[in-house]
Amino acid sequence: MRLLALNLRAGGNSGTIAPIVRRVSYLDAEIAIFSEYRNTSAGAMLRDELQRIGLAYHAYTETTGNGVLIAAAQSFVALQNPFGLADDEYPNAVLLAKFASLQLYGVYLPGQDRKRVHLRCLIAAARRHNEAGDNAICIGDFNSGRNETDIEINVRSGRLRDEFSTADLYAELEQEWTEAWAHLHPEQYEFSWYPFRRDPDYRSYAGWRIDKALISQKLLPLLEAAEYDHIFRQDRLSDHSALLVDLALDSS
User: Fold this and answer.
1) CB atoms near residue 136 (< 10 Å)
2) Contact 193, 147 (CB under 8 A)
3) What's the CA dihedral at 142, 29, 131, 107 to 10 degrees?
4) Residue 219 and residue 136 in contact, taking contact as beta carbons nearer than 8 Å
5) What is the DSSP letter of 208?
6) How far is C-alpha 127 from the chain's CA centre?
């Protein structure tokens, strides 16, 4: 089973949706998770294009602001706002999809300390899934990570020159679930987001690795691969790279 997660950058637009979906199809994703999804005309175009390539089953947060879309080749049961957050707590930040062999949290966590409530809920959910022995994954744009390894300026300078305000809760989540890319690429550095620049030749050194997948204890032995696809960002379809995760699970 292959999962692909991509931040659309402000919901995408009529010029980016079709090439995004073409690359998703080329990469043979069976489940696609889109953050910064917006339930607008661009969102409707995205859903139509995904259906055309066989990702015909959809669930999404019904907001014109930033949220999450999950599209799959197989049917699933979805739950919006699975943690029951209030309207002022960014309830569209998490979407739960229940497949036959996998429980999946698609996320677009808000910036700065606004995501603390979501991380606390994810920590509690991770503990429950571990206790139940569930195959579970949380994947998408976390807007958080490790200060020492996930901020390019820190890696290059060898000093903490910038930081995630929620690095403490992110570390607590990693105590429950394993971060897929870091697990398979120890002592390596890669960054999934750079500031969007109009000049395609500009080389930024301000990368952050914020697009991630964390997996339950039961699922960890089934993790086969986790890689970034930078073409989405290099072709300026988004300011994010996509994350691909391969699991030894039956997709039926």
Assistant:
1) 24
2) no
3) 20
4) yes
5) B
6) 20
Q: Tell me the CATH number at 93.
A: 3.60.10.10
pTM: 0.96
Q: Is residue 189 part of a domain?
A: yes
Q: Nearest to residue 193, comparing CAs of 32, 3, 5?
A: 5
> 170 in a domain, yes or no?
yes
Count structural domains, the chain. 1
Q: What are phi and psi of 36, to 5 degrees?
A: 55, 30
Domain membership of residue 252 (yes or no) is: no
Torsion of the alpha carbons at 26, 66, 128 and 216, rounded to the nearest 10:
30
pLDDT at 200 over 70: no
Mind listing the pLDDT tens digit for each residue in 203-250?
Answer: 677 899 999 999 999 999 999 999 999 999 999 999 999 999 999 998
Is residue 193 assigned to a domain?
yes
Rg (alpha carbons) of the chain, rounded to whole number: 17
Q: Which SS3 state, helix, strand or coil, does residue 15 take?
A: coil
Domain that includes residue 20, residue range: 2-247
Instruction: Encode pLDDT of 152-191 as tens digits.
Output: 999 999 999 999 999 999 999 999 999 999 999 999 999 9
Measure the CA–CA gap between 115 and 104, rounded to whole angstroms. 19
Distance CA 148, CA 12 (A): 31
Pair 164, 145: CB distance under 8 Å:
yes
Average pLDDT of the chain, as a whole number? 95
Question: Stretch 119-124: mean pLDDT, rounded?
Answer: 98
What is the share, in percent, of the chain residues with pLDDT greater than 90?
Answer: 93
Report residue 251's pLDDT band, with 50, 70 and 90 as the boundaries. Answer: low
E-assigned strand segments in 102-241: 103-108, 136-141, 178-179, 211-215, 223-229
